[in-house]
Design brief:
By secondary structure, the protein is mainly alpha-helical. It has a single domain, classed as Rhodopsin 7-helix transmembrane proteins (Rhopdopsin 7-helix transmembrane proteins), CATH 1.20.1070. It is built from 14 helices and four strands. α2 runs antiparallel to α3, α4 packs parallel to α7 and α9 packs antiparallel against α12. One of its GO terms (biological process) is microglial cell activation. InterPro entries: GPCR_Rhodpsn, GPCR_Rhodpsn_7TM. This is Purinergic receptor P2Y12.
Amino acid sequence: MESFTTFPLSSGNHSSRTNSTCSRDNVLKTVVFPVLYSFLFLVGLTLNGVAVWVFFRIPSKSHFIIYLKNIVVADVIMTLTFPFKVLSDSNIGSTGLRIFVCRVSSVLFYLTMYISILFFGLISIDRCRKTLKPFRGTNAARLARRKVLSGAIWTFQLILCLPNVFLTSKTPKSPYFKCSELKSDAGLYWHEVVNYACQVVFWSNLVTVVVCYTLITKELYRSYSRTKSQGTGATICKASSGGTIRKPGQAKRKMSANVFLVLAVFFVCFVPFHFARVPYTISQTHVVMFDCKLKLFFFQLKESTLFLSSSNSLLDPLIYFFLCKSFRTTLFKTLKLPHGTCSRLLKRGSDTDTDSTPMRDSSVCT
């Protein structure tokens, strides 16, 4: 969780203006990002509201659905923090609101970010397992264990992050303050502990995602090579009704794009921020090594990549739609769309459940 956010409460003195210029009170922070986050809030709240509405109608019959339900809850909470960031960064909000952002809103934002990262890691493991062991099913005991694991993740993150709320208890002494100035000594220490823990969470899950998708890629390549050697790689035959039926080779190529959607969202949303925050943190803790312009550059880089992390709440619904057939089916039935809409949108020859493994049909939510 960042503690270096600064809030200019007034511009009544020269030193505040000077610090403001050096400390990021600029158009990018006060105008551009508030507009972008307002867009994220409106669209994200709509999409995630629909996702919650649909998932309440889907039973938790697989590990994948359990993980997706947890992600959608995290996304909704993250989305609800955006208005506070907009008001704070644009200098519209009151002093009390800006203190609230330091104590509560930003803590919830980072809490949900790392919960999403953890569940992305679990989804990657699940997709890898389904690829390498396609015929291994699930049962009530395994589902119960995944629910317990999900609860443990939320509990761990809450225990880790909530002290930041209670230990950010000081009153700002000047009209221009950093969130870190609101923390007690214990709060600063705990904040450092949380930062290290979050780094461990991210990097361990990054390794997990890379390893899992490397194994998935190898298995897909082996499967494609076997199919190609049998001469069935890209054959399309005519059905008795005059339509076309795609052979397994085509289905696997279409599946590949869908399976790697999780990997793409993870790398777009979370990787840039964690690489950018390293030089940013150094520029904040070793002030003498960096001049004003360089510190401003690292701040803007961090804020830009943080926006990418926030866009996770907008991109996750794509995962629900393209990787979860139960989600699509329930959505279309609820909206009373005509039969075959799902097939046309996905450009597939059929919308029937063929198998519960990503090797056969990645659109099946298993």
